[in-house]
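Risk mitigation, structural track. In case the binding assays with DQA fail to produce interpretable data, a predicted complex structure has been prepared as a fallback.
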Amino acid sequence: MRILVINGPNLNLLGRREPAIYGSGTLEELERGLRDKYPEVSFRFFQSNHEGAIVDEIQSAPDIADGIVINPAAYTHTSIAILDALKAVGLPAVEVHLSDILSRESFRQHSFISAACLATITGKHFRGYEEAVELLIKTLS
Ligand code: DQA
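Fallback model:
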């Protein structure tokens, strides 16, 4: 099974960025943890600070992945383009947020992306990505 894990803007700074909200683990540690925990999954990891690059990656996903885990970061709250790309490719996708966006500022409480996802997992930090992978494994098996 092939899973594409997409992380959006500023998530390259994980570990240094507002650790009280996002935790002290780095993006590299997150990715290595998933590889180690799910050796049966072939992962591709992609991070970008650019909306169009994320759209391009989603458009190419059907050639390289069976499912998508996505933390669109701030684009969650603004990007109809990412929503449309996920709908266009139609792969099963799970949305993840490290923090609990529903208990934060009002502008973080709406996600454009949820409408294209099987589930949205929030506030569980790195564990949320594991739950997303497990949900995709269950869905795709
Ligand atoms: C985030 C929540 C977003 O509101 C924020 O812009 C992020 C990270 C999260 O993982 O909690 O960059 O997606």
